Amino acid sequence: MRTVNSFVGQPIERLEDLRFVRGRGQYVDDLARQDMLHAAILRSSVGHGRIRSIDVSRARDLPGVHLVITAADLGNPTPRVPMRLQPMPEFEAFGQPVMARDKVRYVGEALALVLADSAAVAEDALGVIEVDIEPLPAVWNWQIAAKNQTLLFEDKGSNTTMKFRAVLGDAAAAFKDAPYTRRERFSTQRHTALPMEPRGVLAEWDAAQGRLTVWGAAKVLFANRRILAKEMGLAEDAIEMVENDVGGGFGARGEFYPEDFLIPFAARHCCRPVKWTEDRREHLMTINHAREAACDVEIACERDGTILGLRGHAFVDMGAYMRTNGAVGARNVAQFMSGPYRVPNIDIDVALLLTNKTPVGTYRGPGRFETDFFRERLFDMVARDLGIDQVEFRRRNLVGEAEMPYTVATITPFESKDELDSGDYQVTLDRCLSEIGWAEKTAKFKGKLVDGRYHGLAVCCFIEGGAAGPKESARLKLESDGTLTVYIGSSGVGQGLETAFAQITADAMEMPMDRINNVFHGSTAYVSDGYGAYHSRSIVMGGSAILDAATKLRAAMCAEAARRLNCGAAEVVLGDGRANGPDGKSVSWAELALEPISVEGAFLNKKHTWAYGAHAAHVAVDPKTGHVALIDYVAVENCGRMINPLTLKGQLVGAVVQGLGGAFLEHLVYDENGQLLTGSLADYLVPTASDFPKIRGYVMESHPSPINPLGAKGAGEGGIISVGGVIANAVADALRSFGVEPRDLPLSPSRVWQLVQDARKARSVH
Amino acid sequence: MPIKFEVNGKPVEVEVEPRLTLADCLRHHLRLTGTHVGCEHGVCGSCTVLVDGVAVRSCLMLAVQAEGAKVVTVEGLSLEDGLTPLQASFRKHHALQCGFCTPGMITTAHALLSEEPDCDADRVREVLSGNICRCTGYISIVEAVLDARAAYQRDGKGA
Question: What was the ipTM of the complex prediction?
Answer without folding.
Answer: 0.97
